[in-house]
Structures are given as C-alpha cells and as structure tokens.
Amino acid sequence: MSSVKGKKEKKCLVSSVKGKKEKKCLVSSVKGKKEKKCLVSSVKGKKEKKCLVSSVKGGRNNEIPLSSLDTRHSPLLPLDTRHSSLLPLDTRHSSLLRLGVNIDHVATLRQVRGTAYPDLVQAARVCEAAGAGGITVHLREDRRHIQDRDVFALRKAIKTRLNLEMANNPDILSVALKVRPDEVCLVPERRQELTTEGGLDAAGQERRLRPTIGKLRDAGIEVSLFIAADPRQIEAAARLGAPVIELHTGTYCDLKGAAARRELTALCAGARLAHAMGLTVNAGHGINLENARGILEIPHLNTLNIGHSIICNAVFTGLNRAVREMLEAMRAYHGGKP
Ligand code: PXP
C-alpha cells in the first residue's frame, strides 16, 4: 500500500498477529532541506508514532529505508537508533527489507593466497555505502575464511549492524562475548562441509543451546537461530527465548519447479507461524538475483542475509554495484504473501 500526496509519501504494511490487525506506515515528508520520516504503528486502534528528522542531500535519493527504522520486535517498542537509522545512508533504495551482506568470501580470496588483501573493512564499508543495512561474517571453527582479528576490526569500523554467525562452541562464544556484535546467529557446523548445510536442530539441542543463548542475551547481543521452516524448530526457538530466527532458504534455492514451490510454501507457513509467536523473521542462504523473486513471497521478513552471489557478481560489476543490484531486486518486497 503506498500513496504520494505532494511531497508526502506514505507506505503501509498490514499484517495480523494472533488475529489482531497490525498496521505499520512509513510517512516521509520533505520540507526545504529537512526530511521527516515517521513510523506510525497501530494495533487495535492504539497508535504510536516515532519520527526521525534528517537533512536532505541531493534530494529524494538520500532515503532512509523503513528497515532502518528498527521494527524488529514489537511495533510499540522504542526504536533502536544506535545504528543505521540516524546515519546518512547513501541509498536510493526504500525497501521494507534490510540486506545483510555476508562478506566471508572476501576473506576466502585473502586466505587462499595468504595475502593481506582484500581488506575486509574496506569491503564492509563499500557494502554500507551501497546501502547494506548490516554486515554478516561466519567465524568458523576451522577459520577457513574469517579470522578473529577480522571480527574485532569490523566491530570497530562498521556503522550499521554486525551479525556474527557461529556454531555453539565455547571458544567461539568467548570471542563473541568479547566482540559484542549486534547479533549472533547460531548455525550448525560440520568441518567437511563446503557451506552451512541444513538448519540448526534447536528442538533436539535445547539443553545445549539454552546456556549459550542466555550468555549472549545477558551481554546484550540479539540472538538468532538459523533453522528450517519446521514448526518444531520454530517452537523450540520461541521456548529458548531467541527473539529472531533466520529461515534456511538454501533448500528452496537449490530446487526447481514443483519441489521449489512446495519448499516455498513451507517457508511462507514457517514465517507466518514465527511472526504469530512474536519472533522476528530473517532469511538466508543461497539467495541470488534469480531466485530472489520467490524469496520475496515469504511474509514478515525483516532481513535477508546474502553472501556468495553478491561476491560472485562483484567480480564482474564491482562490490558497490552488486550490493545495489540486490537492493534493487529487494525493492519489490511488499510484505510477502498474506
Ligand atoms: N545465512 C547463514 C546462516 C549462513 O550460514 C550463510 C552462509 O554463510 C548465509 C546466510 C549466506 O549464504 P550465501 O553465501 O549462500 O548467500
């Protein structure tokens, strides 16, 4: 839903949580050199408005995406203004979705030759300048790409959000607690795998996951669980007190035809269930410019974490353009299938 009246622009998303209608509208207005963005949330007629005023450089292009007005939790919670929302994001993209760029494979290029380049911090800055809402890295037990020093350097340098993917491993946990990323996404890890295979068995590992999640939460780190769109796993995430899940889209992205449709239906159902349980829903793995259209059918998405395809496209287009092209594709998101 979108309307433009003179210099006022309104975009709304209507969803329903446990039968209660929820409406979130982003109202943007430009007066002289000032731009005002308000997020108006209403649940059962109860309205709340949060506004940000920024100066407009170069006209309408300097948009603050709705995703940077942080609506991750309850629409009535105070906005998280620590990161992107107050930054002069140089982005023409006004999407309902945040893009987290996974830069692991920039480090892969460095590690295969043992060189000092390419510089991870430089890569992160290019992604941010292109409009990424966050930077994701996976500190693997075998340190095949990202190294501990990268995570510390990124923590200092990046202006958006740092999302650290990690296995439930005490050594990596101690790094995470020192680095204090904005978010930790717990993932399963096997030494021999080429990339993360399958989602975390949150339902089968509740006892082992609970203390880790507790320590991360106590340190003020938002915890996300990378899981399949399986009701058992979603319910386990809610029981474990993880406020965020990342739906594993890898299976869908590898399939074609009817099998892909079935998997997409399961992802949509999983997202609806998680949202109804009050969880924030992210998605990631295997997403590229071709399959993104299907991914955008998934309702209630907050963030897409995308790495390999963006870094591959960057070989031909440069990283800035590769990020912008993905953001452009994500502009088609209007809240997914109801
Ligand atoms: N999300 C999670 C949890 C992952 O483990 C990965 C891969 O590191 C990604 C997203 C990004 O996947 P891809 O590189 O296929 O875009």
Structural features, described:
This protein is an alpha/beta fold. It has 2 domains: 88 residues, no CATH class; 236 residues, Aldolase class I (TIM Barrel, Alpha-Beta Barrel), CATH 3.20.20. Helix content is 33%, strand content 26%. It has 11 helices and 13 strands. The strands form 2 sheets. The chain has an 8-stranded parallel beta barrel, surrounded by 8 helices. A 5-stranded antiparallel β-sheet has the order 1-2-3-4-5, with no helix packed on it. Helix 3 links the parallel strand 7 and strand 8. Helix 10 crosses helix 11. The protein is globular, with a radius of gyration of 19 Å. The two termini are 13 Å apart. Bound molecules: pyridoxine-5'-phosphate. Pyridoxine-5'-phosphate binds next to strand 13 and helix 10.
Low-confidence stretches: 1-6, 54-94
* Helix/strand class: alpha/beta
The CATH superfamily of the largest domain appears as Aldolase class I
How many helices? The count is: 11
Number of domains: 2
How much of the polypeptide forms β-strand, as a percent range?
Answer: 25-35%
Count every beta strand, where a strand is a DSSP E run of 2 or more residues. Answer: 13
> So, CATH architecture of the largest domain?
Alpha-Beta Barrel
The residue-averaged pLDDT reads 82
Bound molecules: pyridoxine-5'-phosphate
Helix share, percent:
25-40%
